[in-house]
Design goal:
single chain, alpha/beta, nine-stranded mixed β-sheet, two-stranded antiparallel sheet, elongated
Amino acid sequence: MWRVIHILRKLNPCFQITCLRNRRDMCFRAVDRSQGQLLDLSIENFGDDELLNLIVDRSSDLKRLTLQVCSGLTGKGLVGAVKKLPLLEELHLTIRCSIEAADVEAIGISCPMLKSFTFNRNGFSNPSVIYNLDEPNRNKYALAIAENMPNLCHLRFIGNSIDNEGLESILDGCPNLESLDLRQCFGLDLQQGLGKRCSKQIKHLKSPLDAVSEIEYLGAMYELDYIYDIPYIDVFEDEDIDFEVY
């Protein structure tokens, strides 16, 4: 029985719809073979509401879910799925701009055991490209996290339009934070007292100007660091797909 499934693939401009369907079928078969014992699922560059719903219906014990550039997934579909995952401790989302602050709020309410949350959006490699400081509700995602995820220990928040007020809300609302990744959040000013508070409160802090070598796709995508050191099991012909189960 498989407890961990990672199906990852780099973006390819020649990638065909048939390949997406094949990968969708691959994922469903792998989940089905896990016989309800799946604990960790990572998928990249495919997936939609229907597939995620099929997955969670067969994997109610899931503790870690990573969704990278799943363009077919909606906020409504994601919220509906995580409501079926009462044991979820880690949720990692990359470039899900269609997810609203209300969806993040609902995720926090539905997942009281959530300890690690990633919400990485489009970023820029040049700090001179900065979000409009007058953007309304620029802290809406930060407030949704601060008010509904009090047990967070790890937060990745790369490329978000947050200012100091939003960061203060996170520090106040998530007192157990041990690591905080704020790379490419260029609306922040950590030169004064807030920076000192972060250094004192957060054990592992990444600041807006820290290196972003993990970002791909023209500076838009942050690729998650995997804690597993397991060789890939290549069971399909497509060499661009990394498929690992264990």
